[in-house]
Amino acid sequence: MKYLLFFTFIACASQPSQYSVVEKPEHFVSPGGSIDAAFYIQEDSFMGTLALKPGAVVAKHSHDGSGEYLYFTKGQGELTIGDEVIKVKDNMAVFIPRGVEHSYVNTGKKEAFAIQVYSPRGPEKRFKKWKDEL
């Protein structure tokens, strides 16, 4: 319930005119299989999940047109935002502003899991390219 309230709050910046219900998300798996991205809401904002196996790496990148919200429900790792390295813990929420470089590595022995929101949507398109790379 606590993260439902969190994402309700952050998604209110731009709201679609109709509600959305997704029971079976579309999945995109990275080359090598270390990351599974699931797409839930794709309206004005995007909401999805990331399952990151031990050793999974999200290379340094930025989103010029969107802010990114991450809520790590479980897992460990190192999230680098700009020049700062943040130790990821269970139930940690993070906001990454537009245009700020960031990366992640799962340094734990278990899978990490995060809820991800882009506002406005757009950066999630990179996950769709994984189908072409497999």
Q: Determine and state the CATH class.
A: Mainly Beta
How far apart the termini lie comes to 36 Å
Structural class: mainly beta
Would you identify the CATH architecture? Sandwich
Alpha plus pi helix count: 3
Question: How would you describe the overall organization of this protein?
Answer:
The chain has 134 residues and is mainly beta. It has a single domain (2-9, 27-133), classed as Jelly Rolls (Sandwich). It is 13% helix and 44% strand. The protein has 3 helices and 10 strands. It has helices at residues 2-11, 125-128, 130-133, and strands at residues 26-29, 35-42, 46-52, 57-61, 67-74, 77-81, 84-88, 92-96, 102-105, 112-119. The strands form 2 sheets. It has a 6-stranded antiparallel beta sheet with strand order 1-2-3-10-5-8, with helices on one face. Strands 4-9-6-7 form a 4-stranded antiparallel beta sheet, with no helix packed on it. The longest helix is centred in the N-terminal third of the chain and has 10 residues, at 2-11. The termini are far apart.
In short:
This protein is mainly beta and 134 residues long. The chain contains 3 helices and 10 strands. The strands form 2 sheets. It has a 6-stranded antiparallel beta sheet, with helices on one face. A 4-stranded antiparallel beta sheet has the order 4-9-6-7, with no helix packed on it.
Properties at a glance:
134 residues; mainly beta; Jelly Rolls; 4-stranded antiparallel sheet; 3 helices; 10 strands; 13% helix; 44% strand; globular
Helix-strand blueprint:
Elements: H1 2-11, E1 26-29, E2 35-42, E3 46-52, E4 57-61, E5 67-74, E6 77-81, E7 84-88, E8 92-96, E9 102-105, E10 112-119, H2 125-128, H3 130-133
Antiparallel strand pairs: 1-2, 2-3, 3-10, 4-9, 5-8, 5-10, 6-7, 6-9
